[in-house]
Amino acid sequence: MSVNSILDAQEAPPHVERRRAEPERATNLFMSRAYNCYAEKGKEAPKKAPPFVHHTFQVESVGLRFIYDSNLSLERQQEEAAKVIENSKYHDIGRTDGEIGRNTQHPEDGYRILKDEGIPEEVRGFCLDHDMWGVGRSIDGRPNNLQLAKENPRALLEKYDEKYGFAGIATMIADNAKRYPKKGEGDILMPMIAPLTRELSAALIDRQIAIGNYALDDEKHKAEKVGVDFAFAAISYMEEKYGVTYRRAVENAQDEWPARAQEMEKLWANEAAKAEARKILTVTND
């Protein structure tokens, strides 16, 4: 299902007063920043969408599959699907700042980017809360949820459910449904959709240590291990409350990915065309 079809079908339940998601705005803002951040740093944008853009669209793809496989009514599914698109496009938007694609402060930077764009706290807060497997980041006196995730993961999941709805839970779980190929499997280490396992979670943490995001047994590494347990608790919560069979949903998203990847590349090419048009306009005006 495309962004436009979700926009057309989206209709909030009449008995619920809540903010209406803006998936098209989120998509436009993310794609614009993702493409133009290269020129801002004096670099040429790649011809094809880079790894962090792949990841963003893969999170969206998996998150949407969770929504459509859930026990929610069709009306609620459309509402939550629009929020998944919004969450997915915003959750790593901070990777367009700092070191492109690898900014380790991307949750905090994403939060500030969205604040500057006038995005409300109930949306931009997800930039912080999704990180570290859902344990979250601290910023401006806003605490993370490490202690609660360690002592009572169910309570934290209920808190997120209340704050972000099923879309928040679905996007958070989808963010961890990934693996990276080993060197030799491809020239560029593009992320791939994969069901989370204990073995895969260990590999993902090892990768963070290898690329220098934290050191073995430091405080962040310890928090990551709490986060892994929380991630598996989140999967169980989703299966129990929303009737989603996790592995089957992720495998279905794998099957759907080639078509979604084509949609992603069309959007990337569109950003390239807009950038080229701006160059021509600048030359003409000069």
Describe this structure in words.
With 286 residues, this protein is mainly alpha-helical. The protein has one domain. Helices cover 65% and strands 1% of the residues. The protein contains 11 helices and 2 strands; from the N terminus they run ααααααααββααα. The chain has a two-stranded antiparallel ribbon. It is globular. The N terminus is likely disordered.
Low-confidence stretches: 3-17
Mean pLDDT: 88
**Spatial gap, N to C terminus:** 43 Å
Query: What fraction, in percent, of the residue positions are helical?
Result: 55-70%
What does the main sheet amount to? Answer: 2 strands, antiparallel
Order of helices and strands: HHHHHHHHEEHHH
- Assembly state here? single chain
User: How much of the polypeptide forms β-strand, as a percent range?
Assistant: under 5%
Please tell me what the overall shape is. Answer: globular
| Alpha-carbon Rg, integer | 19 Å
Give the number of helices.
11
Number of structurally distinct domains: 1
Q: What is the strand arrangement across the widest sheet?
A: 1-2
The assigned structural class equals mainly alpha
Number of strands: 2
How are the SSEs placed, and which strands pair?
Elements: H1 3-9, H2 23-40, H3 51-68, H4 74-91, H5 106-116, H6 121-129, H7 146-151, H8 153-175, E1 178-179, E2 192-193, H9 198-210, H10 219-242, H11 246-285
Antiparallel strand pairs: 1-2
